[in-house]
Design goal:
about 450 residues, mainly alpha, globular
């Protein structure tokens, strides 16, 4: 049963009858019900849980690889067990408010989102370990983290828009942890329902507000990653709560949305590989900003596409859910562009040694105007070298999906290069990614969950 109807009010039949009524106020604000302008397809879905990032077939495959006792999957499994967030002694620190950004008007004197950031990662990592080991201690500990947050936290807040980054990044991490743990016998129906209610009221409400209003700025004011993390959270919560309307909203937004996270704005242009491979690569909306955020776009897009694809496997009559395949595999082309520009030819697994494999002068770039019509409008004329060489987990998702799941014979050479360089890829708690928010923007542990021979 759906937790609640978020996008389409239950009074839609009445509103259709009384055609003069065009909108309805609900907890997420005013929802436009002008159906003449809403030509987007709305469908119902099958949910064979877990069905967000991974399904039971994935866990069966990974368990088999772990049982072999060697190899990259096994190595990453042992690395996961060793992180600070995977320890059974991990003690969460729930807050009444998650504050990211200007603290004016909040109950706190400084930002505190790092508590949610770390606790969400701990819940997710221990949920993974429960699914892979059948050790109920991991499940009990992870659920305790989720229950404490659901019982304590009432809102995400700041005096600026930055709290929407927390609603996105921490939203989809918490939701994916809950999705993995939902069939644990020790999680009572009442506590699980309370957790789902919390995810909807505290996170999904913010996700929806951002994607529809963009903090009362222009729809393209915020960079692509702001959209992508909130899209990821809203989709994950929609799957968690079996809310078809939420899933439909993200499906439609991905293709026809208004912000910089939708395909039409996420991809600025396509180019030929300057190294002469014949590949087509795609410049993203953040390629000219800095590479810390350009790689975030690639990593979060990988997570978003993986969640949609897992749901697609049980809903293949809705091909639009295969975000990976959209626009002739343009997500792969985008990741190829980002990987090409950031990869070095060193032999280390942190991308810190050697020389870049393409020069800035050889890298193709279409001029891009950011903040059009605003006081800070400026034109980007080349791929940004700021933070060039940044690494993030996420390349394993892209490479293994296109090369192994889809079986494509080419088109992923730079993604493959990065995946192999970082393997085992790791995630939050891996020293290569540091301890700041960038290590937690994506779920990580792609070698463990995505790698195929």
């Amino acid at each position: 049963m759906k937790l609640q109807n978020i996008i389409k009010p239950v009074l839609v039949a009445t509103i259709l009858f009384f055609s003069l009524v065009s909108c309805l106020e609900n907890k997420f604000g005013t929802v436009d019900l002008d159906l003449e302008e809403d030509g987007k397809e709305e469908v119902s879905y099958t949910y064979n849980h877990p069905c967000a990032m991974y399904n039971d077939d994935d866990f069966t495959r990974v368990k088999t690889a772990i049982a072999a006792g060697a190899g990259d999957v096994y190595t990453e499994f042992t690395n996961l067990k060793a992180t600070a967030y995977a320890q059974l002694a991990y003690d969460p620190n729930p807050q009444t408010q998650i504050v990211r950004g200007d603290v004016t008007g909040t109950d706190y004197s400084s930002e505190n989102y790092v508590y949610a950031m770390k606790d969400a990662a701990a819940a997710y990592q221990q949920a993974l370990l429960w699914k892979l080991t059948d050790n109920d201690d991991y499940a009990a500990n992870a659920i305790d983290i989720l229950n404490q947050w659901a019982a304590t936290c009432i809102e995400i807040k700041s005096n600026d828009a930055n709290h929407y980054l927390a609603s996105g990044c921490q939203g989809y991490t918490f939701a994916n942890a809950g999705e993995l743990l939902r069939d644990y016998d020790g999680w009572s129906d009442s506590y699980f329902t309370a957790f789902k209610t919390w995810m909807v009221d505290v996170f999904a409400a913010k996700n929806y507000a951002f994607l529809t209003k963009h903090s009362d700025a222009s729809d393209t004011h915020y960079w692509a990653n702001w959209d992508l993390v909130n899209m990821s959270s809203y989709l994950a919560i929609g799957i968690l709560t079996e809310d078809d309307d939420m899933v439909n909203f993200i499906k439609n937004y991905f293709y026809e949305g208004v912000g910089n996270g939708c395909l039409d704005k996420l991809i600025v242009d396509t180019h030929s590989d300057p190294n002469g491979s014949g590949e087509t690569i795609a410049q993203c909306q953040e390629s000219g900003r800095d590479q810390g955020h350009a790689t975030m776009v690639a990593a979060v897009a990988a997570n978003l596409c993986q969640m949609a694809y897992t749901l697609y496997l049980d809903n293949q009559d809705v091909p639009e859910l295969d975000f990976f395949a959209a626009d002739d595999n343009v997500i792969l082309k985008m990741c190829e562009y980002t990987a090409l520009f950031n990869a070095k030819n060193g032999l280390d697994n942190a991308n810190s040694e050697g020389s870049y494999i393409v020069s800035i002068t050889a890298m193709p770039f279409t001029s891009y105007t950011a903040f059009v019509g605003e006081s800070q409008e400026y034109v980007q004329t080349q791929a940004s070298e700021d933070q060039r060489g940044t690494i993030r987990p996420g390349w394993e998702i892209i490479y293994n999906h296109y090369a192994k799941v889809k079986g494509l014979g080419s088109g992923y050479q730079y993604t493959q290069y990065f995946a192999e360089k970082l393997r085992p890829e790791g995630g939050a708690g891996d020293s290569r990614y540091g301890s700041n928010s960038g290590a937690f923007d994506q779920l990580g542990w792609g070698t463990l969950m995505m790698y195929r021979e």
